[in-house]
Amino acid sequence: MNQKLRRFYDRFVRIHGDPHEIALGFALGILVGMTPTLGVQMVLAAFLAAVLGWNKIAAAAGVWITNPVTAPLIYSLNYWVGARLLSLGKAVHHGAALQTKGFVYVLTKAPHVLGAMALGGLVVGLPLAVLGYWLALRAVTGYREKVKTRISRARERLRHERAARKAQRREGAAGKGPADKKGVAP
C-alpha cells in the first residue's frame, strides 16, 4: 500500500500547471468525492474544474478519497451527519431491504437518504477540501523547490567543472611553446 501511495504522490506532484490551480482542483475533487455521486464523480469533478479553470487531473485524483475501501465508511458518516442536521430518524431498518416490501420502502426513502448524504458530504467535505488544498499546495510547491535546488546545484557544479577544465587548458597552453603545440621538439 505504501508503494501505491508513494507512486500516487510522485505522479501528483509532477502534474503540470500552476500549483494554486492544482491544489484547487484537488480540493474540488475531494469535495465532489464526498457527495453521493458515485459513478460520475470523476466526470463531474473534471467538468467543474474545467468550468472554474482549475486543474482537471488533480480534481479527478481528489475524487479517489472515496474508493471501494473508504466509500462505505465515508457515506455512512455523511448520512449520519446529514440526518442529524436534518433531524431525520433512521431511514432504513435492519433487514428491511432484503424483503420486497422493504425494498419499496427503501426506494421511497431514497430522496431523504440522498439529501442527508449530500448535506453531510458538504459538511464533512468542506474541511477536508480545505485540508486537501493546503496539503496539495505544500506537496507541489515543495517538490518544485526541491527540483529547482537540485537543478541549480547541478548547474553550479557544471560551471565549476567547466572553469576547472578551462584553467587546465590555459595552464597547459601557457607551458608549451609554439613548436610544442605542433608536436616538434625545440
TrEMBL record:
<feature type="domain" description="DUF2062">
    <location>
        <begin position="5"/>
        <end position="146"/>
    </location>
</feature>
<feature type="transmembrane region" description="Helical">
    <location>
        <begin position="21"/>
        <end position="54"/>
    </location>
</feature>
<feature type="transmembrane region" description="Helical">
    <location>
        <begin position="113"/>
        <end position="136"/>
    </location>
</feature>
<dbReference type="InterPro" id="IPR018639">
    <property type="entry name" value="DUF2062"/>
</dbReference>
<dbReference type="Pfam" id="PF09835">
    <property type="entry name" value="DUF2062"/>
</dbReference>
<feature type="compositionally biased region" description="Basic and acidic residues">
    <location>
        <begin position="169"/>
        <end position="186"/>
    </location>
</feature>
<keyword id="KW-0812">Transmembrane</keyword>
<feature type="region of interest" description="Disordered">
    <location>
        <begin position="154"/>
        <end position="186"/>
    </location>
</feature>
<keyword id="KW-0472">Membrane</keyword>
<keyword id="KW-1133">Transmembrane helix</keyword>
<protein>
    <recommendedName>
        <fullName>DUF2062 domain-containing protein</fullName>
    </recommendedName>
</protein>
